[in-house]
Write a structure and sequence with these properties.
Helix content: under 10%
Strand content: over 45%
Number of strands: 10
Order of helices and strands: EEEEEEEEEE
């Protein structure tokens, strides 16, 4: 069974930084894309970033390009999201999720196993 456990969220001031982590188990980590997806209260899931199986290629939604960096450690089955210069609109619960290829839309928490997420709140 897929298990994903996100951590590292918290309260951060605008312009600050935060590093999220995702511990993955129950599947072959290094044969899957990994993604960060976020959800604001009452809003739909928003895909944020993805990284290929080997970590060589990364993809981002326009709103976070140049500020967020996705990375992975295949020896530790761990995914990361370095968030710099955060803005109030980054306030969300952040989830990690595996995928077989790049999907920038169509994410649905009713499909597959999801972790509890980690809350990021950007506020002064």
């Amino acid at each position: 069974q897929v298990q994903l456990v996100e951590s590292g969220g918290g309260l951060v001031q605008p312009g600050g930084s935060l590093r999220l982590s995702c511990a993955a188990s129950g599947f072959t980590f290094n044969t899957h894309y990994m993604n960060w997806i976020r959800q604001r209260p009452g809003k739909a899931l928003e895909w944020v970033a993805a990284i290929t199986e080997d970590g060589h290629d990364t993809y981002y939604v326009d709103a976070v390009k140049g500020r967020f960096t996705i990375s992975r450690d295949n020896t530790e089955n761990t995914l990361y999201l370095q968030m710099n210069d955060v803005k109030s609109e980054d306030t969300s619960k952040y989830y990690c999720k595996e995928s077989s290829r790049l999907f920038t839309t169509g994410w649905d928490k009713r499909l597959g196993d999801w972790g509890p997420g980690t809350q990021v709140t950007v506020s002064s």
